[in-house]
């Protein structure tokens, strides 16, 4: 059985394969490996740092185990998964809002009167949206939560959240899942490793047997290209690892202890190591993406102001008749020098062929909406594939 460290190493192998495929220069390869934690970057621990992920997992196991042993009898534990619309984006032009997703999770968990420790992560969806539009990136969260309330009903809580307007999923997966943790102490290591894992595997959408009319995200390795893993690493490298982990209620104290233990352990592990000097990470990825064959890959856009990211153009909203948002939010170009056309991902533009396919699919969706409207008068569609 593969250990957590083996799975972390699997992600590193995917990145090495992508770097070899793109034929990165020695400097770009050296900096990419530094972001992976070999050897690391001075004063900066990105979320893609493999060594830091391994140390963080051990620190989380220690913190949660100590809290479990000191907990009163009768405490019940739960594993929560959060995958709302605000975390969905497109690998061609990724828009990430960490604070929006974090605030949404925090509000929901406090409403349920639970305590917990949560972590956010990226995952690629390999079979959506297709038709030349790229792949979806699902930014979602997991939480190890607990309560001393004997009357807490996870099924009722899950249903209430999924029926609320704040929690929607145009992928038609359950936005919130709450599962009881039966053997908490025995499962702590497995859950901590899962919470802090790197995206060593992708997801695929499949119809749910348990919930007819909905989809489920199933883990898979087939179809997960190294270049897609590199795209996820690009986003993770621009976020601090500690910014992806947070606590709710008494869980905040545990997260503080975890951060302290992580910092101390990394200081010891890297005390005698020569780390890479700090460099402009965003500029590094622009140069890496210039090596790609396609010029459709724009830089990551991070919106940490709490505003909701724009709906993806390939998602049909279940709460509005607007099935195809304007391209204005997706294809903004940056100024460039006179006489020098924009090139690569630095221009935030899409090729004419990409936009043409986009518009043609929009027309097909609008035509489908008109047919449904004529046949049944129902203007709401499920946003599945």
3D architecture notes:
By secondary structure, this protein is of the alpha+beta class. Helix content is 39%, strand content 17%. The protein is built from 10 helices and 10 strands. Strands 1, 2, 4, 5, 6 and 9 form a 6-stranded antiparallel beta sheet that branches. A two-stranded parallel sheet has the order 3-10. Helix 1 packs across helix 7 and helix 3 runs antiparallel to helix 6. The C terminus is likely disordered.
Largest sheet: 6 strands, antiparallel
Query: In percent, how helical is the residue content?
Result: 25-40%
Query: With helices defined by DSSP (H or I, 4 residues minimum), what is the helix count?
Result: 10
User: How many β-strand stretches?
Assistant: 10
């Amino acid at each position: 059985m593969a250990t957590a460290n083996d799975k972390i190493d699997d992600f590193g192998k995917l990145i090495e394969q992508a770097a070899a495929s793109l034929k990165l220069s020695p400097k770009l390869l050296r900096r990419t490996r530094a972001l992976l934690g070999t050897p690391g970057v001075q004063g900066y621990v990105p979320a893609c740092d493999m060594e830091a992920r391994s140390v963080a997992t051990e620190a989380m196991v220690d913190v949660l185990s100590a809290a479990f042993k000191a907990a009163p009898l009768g405490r019940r534990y739960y594993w929560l998964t959060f995958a709302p619309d605000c975390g969905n984006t497109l690998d061609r032009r990724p828009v990430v809002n960490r604070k929006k997703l974090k605030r949404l999770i925090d509000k929901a968990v406090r409403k349920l009167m639970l305590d917990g420790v949560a972590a956010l992560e990226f995952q690629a969806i390999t079979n959506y949206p297709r038709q030349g539009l790229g792949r979806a990136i699902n930014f979602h969260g997991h939480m190890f939560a607990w309560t001393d309330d004997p009357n807490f009903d996870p099924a009722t809580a899950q249903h209430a959240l999924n029926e609320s307007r704040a929690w929607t999923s145009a992928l038609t997966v359950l936005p919130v899942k709450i599962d009881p943790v039966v053997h908490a102490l025995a499962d702590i290591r497995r859950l901590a490793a899962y919470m802090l894992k790197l995206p060593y595997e992708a997801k695929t959408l499949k119809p749910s047997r348990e919930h007819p009319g909905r989809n489920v995200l199933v883990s898979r390795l087939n179809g997960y290209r190294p270049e897609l893993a590199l795209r996820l690493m690009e986003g993770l490298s621009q976020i601090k690892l500690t910014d992806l982990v947070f606590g709710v209620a008494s869980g905040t104290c545990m997260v503080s202890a975890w951060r302290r233990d992580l910092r101390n352990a990394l200081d010891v592990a890297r005390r005698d190591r020569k780390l890479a000097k700090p460099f402009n990470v965003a500029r590094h990825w622009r140069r890496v993406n210039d090596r790609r064959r396609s010029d459709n890959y724009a830089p990551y856009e991070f919106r940490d102001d709490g505003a909701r990211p724009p709906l993806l153009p390939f998602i049909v909203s279940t709460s509005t008749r607007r099935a195809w948002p304007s391209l204005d939010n997706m294809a903004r170009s940056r100024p460039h020098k006179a006489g020098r056309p924009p090139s690569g991902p630095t221009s935030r533009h899409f090729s004419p062929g990409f936009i043409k396919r986009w518009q043609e699919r929009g027309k097909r969706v609008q035509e489908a909406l008109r047919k449904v409207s004529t046949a049944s008068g129902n203007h709401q569609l499920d946003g599945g594939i």
